[in-house]
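Hey Z.,

So I finally got round to the glutamic acid thing we talked about over coffee. Here's the setup:
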Amino acid sequence: MCCNDDDCIRVRFAPSPTGPFHIGGARSALFNWLLARKLGGKMVLRIEDTDRDRSTPESEENIKAALKWLGMDWDEGVDVGGPYGPYRQMERLDIYKKYTDKLLAEGKAYYCYCTPEELEAEREALTAAGENPRYMGKCANLTSEQIAKYEAEGRKPSIRFRVPKDQEIVINDMVRGTVVFDSNGIGDFVIVKSDGIPTYNYAVVIDDALMHITHVVRAEEHLSNTPRQCLLYDALGFKQPKFGHISLILGPDHRKMSKRHGATSVDQYRQMGYLPAGINNFLALLGWAPVDEQELFTMEELTKAFDMDHVAKNPAVFEIKKLNWINQHYMRQLSADELFEVAKPHMIEKGYMTGEETGEKLAWLKAVVSTSKDYIAYGAEIPGVVSMYFEDEFDFEDEETKAVLAGATVPQVIACFLEELPKVEVLDAPSIKALFKSIQKITKLKGKDVFMPIRVAMTGKQHGLELAQVIPLMGVEKVCAHVKNSMAKLGVNL
Ligand code: GLU
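And the result:
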């Protein structure tokens, strides 16, 4: 059984399953998860599916799969159950109803018969008068005759919460400090829509209270909802949790992160071949600042180091370069087999393998992929790095690279290489190293003047893979074909 005493930390992640799982959502989940794991608390996963037009079961599945992929488990919630279920809001309508009846009976809520057109007209009039658009309470004190008239017209009422006047609402936010709101700025708001479905602000309060949530860590955009929720906690006689509103995630141009900035969903990053360890590490640093300079944290290290005191108020900037740098660190730690698994879908997509390979071919593919390890930030980059093993043609990386082959001593080096390579009996790293030594001797040139043109002619790149590793994997025939092809592009026929 879960603990209900004040020392027990209970957090929740409460996504709305209305579309792709956004990285901002993953960050909220992570902060809650870290808090729970660090403090020995419980993590609850609740699905907020009251938006009937936009919620889909696929989106819920997608969120759960992404959380699992990232390694964030939950102790209570959908699928796993728990003492305060059900954990899907649409399965809790009878619970909300009980509280709504109570609020209505106490006069803390009332039926509102205003039509969308009337509400719109009110909003427009207030806005035109330069006032904050809010509900002015037209239905707050209807007589029974008025109610009967509206009912006879067939109007379906919503239910509004009667916001108390002249109240100062003080939120001691874990991230933003003390934030004060004036209840007079909040109009009576809808808690149950005319179709009987509760609004977010209402259901969230009842759920968080009944699920004994102690800490609500969520996105900053919900800060403006929080005073409404605080009023509801008080009206329902519930104890408020601690709130922590984590800052917006901005794109590098300091505008709210959106599709314009590139991939925004966890799934897109998974499909691109990023690693859970890289994503989690990166997300943790979007808002949380470790006490020292350390930037690389495993999930275990994060669990130990994370704390809400060092979650910053200022917006977090999503720098893809940083994500790549972090992810690369974790890519380098993969074993050859693990790296191959990451590479596989990308290699298949590119047509470099079928996925059915066995024996020598499979071993060769693994060896080829493992040569890419130090040069990639994420899986989808692998085919590009190993393309020269598979393609007959390639482009030079840039003009400067191409210019390497225009050097005066290049034809001599290349001719010597083409002459000597086929003579090597056992093609392996030591024999290739020995081959380069002998080319240096024959041509009387320094190492770089030998390696660089051969590398560029073979791969189209100035940097990257060790030639002693690449040549045995590529085979004499392909190496010679690439080299001749490159020289032909420069008009040098050998
Ligand atoms: N369902 C809300 C959302 O996805 C939850 C907000 C909250 O954590 O209170 O934004």
